[in-house]
Each structure stands twice: as C-alpha cells, then as structure tokens.
Write the structure tokens for this entry.
Amino acid sequence: MNLFKYNEHERQMNFYELLQTIKQNPNPYISRNSIFDFQAFYNGYSLTKSLFNLPITEEEQKFEDFLNWIMESYSPIELHCSWATIIFIYSADEIDGLKKLFELFEEYLEQQEEKMLESSEDLNDESEC
C-alpha cells in the first residue's frame, strides 16, 4: 500500500476544514497546543503554496485578511509584532492564545457576513427608490 499515492477522485480538505481539524485536534499538525506552533505551521503552509505557485483560495485570503485585521485592531500602539504575539499578549498562555485565534476568526467571519448582508440590504433599498 502506497501511503503517498495521490487519488485525484478523493475529495481534498478545504482550508476552513483544515482549521477546524486543527482546532479540534492540533497534535497531528503542530507539536504543541500553542499559538506560536500554529504560527510556524501556517508560515510553512503559506511558504509551500508560494514555492509551488499554488493559487490562494478565497478562504485562505479571508484568513490573511483576518490576520491583518488582528494586527490593525488589537495592537494598542504601533508595535512591530506578529499576529501571534498580539493574540498572546491578550491571552493567559500559549494554549489560550490558540483558542483565542479560532474564536476571533469565527467572530471576524460573522462580522464580515453581517457587513455583506447590510450592504446587500442597502443595495436593495436603493433599487426600490
């Protein structure tokens, strides 16, 4: 049995499913349940995609936007820190930081969805005039 054989008919995990899997069971992906180990994993993931010229999916772009939002919204002063460090500053420890990352990402997605709904409602209101 070849463990590395690629089957093009098997469905591949999308990025949000990967995040959900890591949230539920981080150990196969990161060595410690830590915001900084996740940061190393994500940096490696991003680098691999770049090196192989793989396109960034919409989900991955939303996650990147979220990380930029963290750096803009939660940095009390203009610090030159990573998103992981900023989340860690607001956390009890590295484990809590990883939990906060996933919580904040879910909140961010909900906010973005609400904004899209509001803007589509505004467009509908304008078209009724």
